[in-house]
Design a protein that fits this description.
By secondary structure, this protein is an alpha/beta fold. The chain is about 45% helix and about 15% strand. The protein has 12 helices and 9 strands. It has helices at about 20-35, 60-70, 90-100, 110-120, 135-150, 165-175, 190-205, 215-220, 240-245, 255, 280, 290-305, and strands at about 50-55, 75-80, 100-105, 125, 155-160, 180-185, 210, 225, 265. The strands form 2 sheets. It has a 5-stranded parallel sheet with strand order 7-6-5-8-9. Strands 2-1-3-4 form a 4-stranded parallel sheet, with helices on both faces. Helix 7 links the parallel strand 6 and strand 7. The longest helix is centred in the C-terminal third of the chain and has 19 residues, at about 290-305. It is globular, with a radius of gyration of 19 Å. It starts with 20 loop residues before the first helix and ends with a helix. The chain binds phosphoric acid mono(formamide)ester and norvaline. The site of phosphoric acid mono(formamide)ester has 9 residues, from helix 2. The site of norvaline has 9 residues, from helix 6.
Length: about 300
Amino acid sequence: MTAPLTKLAAPDLTKDLDLTLPELHSLLTLAADLKAAPHHYASALEGKSIALLFEKPSLRTRMTFEVAIQQLGGFAVTNNGMIGAREPLKDVARNLERWFSGIVARTYTQKTIEDLAKWSKIPIINALSDLYHPCQALADMQTVKEHFGDWRGLKFSFVGDGNNVSHSLMLCCARLGMHFALAHPKGYEAAPDIIAEAQALAAASGASITITNSPEDAAKDANIIYTDVWASMGDEDEAAERRTAFSDYQVDEDLFALADPDAIFLHCLPAKRGEEVTDGVMESPRSAVFDQAENRLHAQKALLLMLL
Ligand code: CP
Ligand code: NVA
């Protein structure tokens, strides 16, 4: 191996702030090395089996964890379904810890992630909950570094919902010294406690957090414009009212034109073209959405190696 492999102090990655700032830097350095020289790590997870639990659909997260674990010499077993429906979660957790080295879980609630961490002795990785999407944010930080060489001083603007993805991005940007702006319609705010955490981290890193209802203010001179679906998994019954509420929040060519001329467009995917983003912006030469998707593989490999 060519990058130093430090183990995380926390037993789990239930949320972004389970990583210390030095660990975040180490993880992103390791992720870059895993991308450049994957063959150096071909047996790094040899003998380890990891359970992948999905309460909600997934393309990227499931595929990249399965491929990552296989490429590192480990073995993944996937189970789809509600955790705790057929038998109590505390029993599920204490079964899995007898067979597996770790659990990756995508859940409806953050509490399910935290209960898995409480009831099992093996590491839990949050693969998206209602509050956070830390694996996505790690890959996105890797993508920004690849495009700009550094994070400090960049303006990272998220146009859309105060949701799991914007929460994780806000926290990571604040720690890495990026000025973070969130533009959302009234009624779709980010969680106040997460905003407060991000503001404290930004004060320490020299960054800033701007919360606005103006997509134009967020987009102006941005280096990165990011959006996500208007109705997340679990919010589908609100899709019609959200389409109305978010109608002025589409990332279209006019909004993207307000950004820095070298700005990139990011989206965690899946994207709904014609809603939160136009086909033109998605397909533009400055769209880096598939770089993000690729980096899920490398960033999650780094996370697995540092946690297991
Ligand atoms: N971005 C992301 O997590 O994609 P999936 O929902 O397909 O896993
Ligand atoms: N906010 C979206 C992200 C999907 C990767 C959701 O939770 O559905």
